[in-house]
């Protein structure tokens, strides 16, 4: 646009000067001066007008649709793709508008709903997307299908083009860069999803110098979700992220930890409890692991009493958070 305007100015200038008399009279000089002044004014107006149009066009291009999620009501999201991770877990990708973000914040979850069947009640379950909060055009959920899982089986039954009712975001823990010097994470199974939210937030924020230590517990090596991504993030950001795996049933030549998450393992890999307010340990996983590591939650808004391995090694309720 600007190049074309410059070219037009150049052409006008050459045409005016090439037709001017070599030695104009005073009267003709005034006429040509007026013509030139008029040309500049017209050109200036043309340039200003085109510039304003360019700015307006740029603003239109840069404007984005509002976030897809609604925290007050369930909204239908269309399933666009499914990628199987292992024998019982898949990534379900839901379509957003072009240039649209989900509206998720770190750290938060969303609610999914299966409409009520005749004579029954709707089923509502929380999930945590694995896409970054600034990802445009789609939103991913990792869902592990349980034999008795009403919602997980419902999501697994969806075909590409079907819709899922989703509401959110529901804020769980408001993360602010550098709010802690060190963060500990103990996750089990799909409990890795809220941890990944925070990990990616820290890594994608250059000014955030927080150090994260993740202990990820699973039954078998095949159960380790997003391992390639976690290993990649660790390799590229060793100053920010350390990941250790622990398996109940490890394969031969396993070089990670074995067994359950005990006080000894927590002490080995988690931050020093003496850091006090400069640290926090996040915990998320199946009920049995939660009970052994931190004690169970009493409800969505009730963290419950701290117990288990973390209490044993010196952590207090103020620096442990259960997702």
From TrEMBL:
Location of the protein in the cell: Mitochondrion outer membrane
InterPro entries found in the cross-reference section: CBR-like, Cbr1-like_FAD-bd_dom, FAD-bd_FR_type, Flavoprot_Pyr_Nucl_cyt_Rdtase, FNR_nucleotide-bd, OxRdtase_FAD/NAD-bd, Riboflavin_synthase-like_b-brl
Catalytic activity entry: 2 Fe(III)-[cytochrome b5] + NADH = 2 Fe(II)-[cytochrome b5] + NAD(+) + H(+)
Domain FAD-binding FR-type: 72-176
Gene Ontology cellular component annotations, sorted alphabetically: mitochondrial outer membrane
Record-linked CDD domains: cyt_b5_reduct_like
Alphabetically ordered keywords of this record: FAD, Flavoprotein, Membrane, Mitochondrion, NAD, Oxidoreductase, Transmembrane, Transmembrane helix
Entry membrane topology: Single-pass membrane protein
Enzyme Commission number: 1.6.2.2
Sample GO molecular function, one term: cytochrome-b5 reductase activity, acting on NADH
Residues involved in FAD binding: 125-127, 142, 144, 151-152, 193
The protein's required cofactors: FAD
Subcellular location, principal: mitochondrion
PROSITE patterns from the UniProt entry: FAD_FR
Pfam family name, one: FAD_binding_6
PANTHER family assigned: NADH-CYTOCHROME B5 REDUCTASE (PTHR19370), NADH-CYTOCHROME B5 REDUCTASE 2 (PTHR19370:SF171)
Family, per entry: Belongs to the flavoprotein pyridine nucleotide cytochrome reductase family.
Name the record gives this protein: NADH-cytochrome b5 reductase
Species name: Smittium culicis
